[in-house]
Amino acid sequence: MSAVLEAHGLGKRYGRRWALRDCTIDIPEGHVAGLVGPNGAGKTTLLKLATGLLEPTTGGIDVLGGRPAAGPAQLARVGFVAQDTPVYAALTVAEHLRLGARLNPGWDAALARDRIAALGLDPGQRAGRLSGGQRAQLALTLGLAKRPDLLILDEPVASLDPLARREFLQGLMEATAEHRLSVVLSSHLVSDLERTCDYLIVLVESRVQVIGRTEELLAGHHRLTGPRHDPAAPLLDGQVVSARHTERQSTFVVHGDLPGLGPAWTASPLGLEDLVLAYMDHSRLEAQR
Amino acid sequence: MIWLTWRQFRGAAVMTATLLVLLAAVLLTTGSRLANDYATGIASCTRGEECVGFYDRFFGEYELPFLASTLVVLILPALVGLFWGAPLITRELEAGTHLLVWNQSITRTRWLAIKLGFTGLVATAAAGVSGLAVTWWSGPLDQSAPEGFALMDPLVFGARGIAPLGYAAFAFALGVTVGMLVRRTLPAMALTLALFAAVQVAVPLLVRPHLLPPVTASFEIGKGNVDGLSMSRDGVFSVILTSAIPGHTGSWVLSSALVDSSGRTVAPAGEHAPIPVSTTSGPCALSGAGPQGGEACMVEINRLGYRQRATYQPLERFWPLQWIETGIYALLTLALTWLSFWWIRRRPS
């Protein structure tokens, strides 16, 4: 299995501020990978580096084995739906499809037409007069009908209402299954990714906190609750992701095998949201140190 | 990509084309009558003075359309830079659509090349066509134009021949490049206008006079270059020169001054140049003033060694200067284009 996205020591600096630092990731083919993190964590920067819209300051990134945006062939293999799903306000829906057909040799006209029809979009409608959800769907249609091997989406549902959000993600899932394409999708809301992603990257404060298959990550992390134990070491050394303490109780999120701690401790599985929150906490603790 | 460029540009293009066709129609219908009037007028005047009178009457009749058409050609390149050049890229950056189009299967370089090439060619062609049409139309007027409106005068020169072509290409490339660096449409438009205006003022003042080494020559004092002879209350006689030079009608005079027999400048044109000559007796005596006396007085001034010394670009250099100046603007355009390609490769998104 080859990698759709492979980065080594990737970093991007704007002036004196690092938007992304020392990022080493390897996303294998055939996944819907969720890139999650708070606003300003560097998600957009990473995705723009992957599409060649930005040049890295340090390190390197390969997408589908090639340098991002290196030429028409590489561009044809990667689809990108940018944040806020920009479209040409003055052009109609049909003209957007024509644009796609003219600029992409691998354009799938039938796919585009069928999708627009299934969505109930009027081809004669100007894109500027579409609702946010419709605009996002149009942008997704352009990305899909190009028939890329990898589709990258930057916060595609951030500005959509819950219904449009669900419809968009559902459409994305169907297309992914049908055309067997890999997807990298960013969001600052875990709930968006919970149902769609089988691979997860948590990015906080411009650094990758954790990366892996969702199910493996969930199986490899536990919540431990027991008598107050602050600090955690030496009881739990080197595997604490986050710790919370009340007067009598401590709650830890730990990764790796569960240590035998005795009957005072109970272990419970974690949800995806808890896992991500634990890593955000973790990053804050690291920063305080 | 050409389709997309055309689709985005067609509104502005159709509007401009309509206006240009309108302008061309007006010029065509009035142009033949203008040429006719001129031909009959020239044929009916025999003596030089009569012809000067005809020139004045003829030019006066058409002065308003002459100025208006000249102004249109002068302004057109600025409009091209402002409304076509500056928004070309900034509009995409502001709407975020560059992220959409840069992720189709076409490189940014190619995208820019087609956008720049197509729109730029249309812009240059529009300015070129209107420039040449106005040049043709005002041909007879340029023959009869008084000082200040002649073909070689800075403002008229810039609205004739092929120079508007160079200005439009430069203004367009300037607008695009400024837009890329500023990234906002309105500030980019304002900056483009300011820069273009500065260049358009600087070139006639500082560059054009030296494109070819100007001619410096001395001329005898006569009716063709004297504005007036006068005497002050305390009896000092003086000559006031014009900046016209005899025998070289239509030249662009860069400097004109009265010099004495040793070559020393007495006073520049337009100012009183005192000459030590008797005003009580001889040809320049006050009693002898009048047309007859004036001529005798000028002969006397010439005899004393006074001459007009002028530095000028003769009318015959109109086309060489046009080509050189257009070439310079073409080079500037190329440099700006290179800069915009550099930008799109190095500083994207």
Automatic annotation (TrEMBL), chain A:
Highest taxon of the lineage: Bacteria
Boundaries of every ABC transporter domain copy: 5-230
A Pfam family of this chain: ABC_tran
Keyword Ligase attached: no
UniProt entry tagged with the keyword Cytoplasm: no
GO molecular function, one term: ATP binding
Keywords: ATP-binding, Nucleotide-binding, Transport
InterPro entries for the chain: AAA+_ATPase, ABC_transporter-like_ATP-bd, ABC_Transporter_VariousFunc, P-loop_NTPase
Listed name of the protein: ABC transporter ATP-binding protein
Organismal lineage: Bacteria, Bacillati, Actinomycetota, Actinomycetes, Streptosporangiales
Automatic annotation (TrEMBL), chain B:
Record keywords, A-Z: Membrane, Transmembrane, Transmembrane helix
Transmembrane segments: 64-90, 111-137, 157-181, 188-207, 326-344
Protein name listed in UniProt: ABC transporter permease
Naturally occurring in which organism (per UniProt): [Actinomadura] parvosata subsp. kistnae
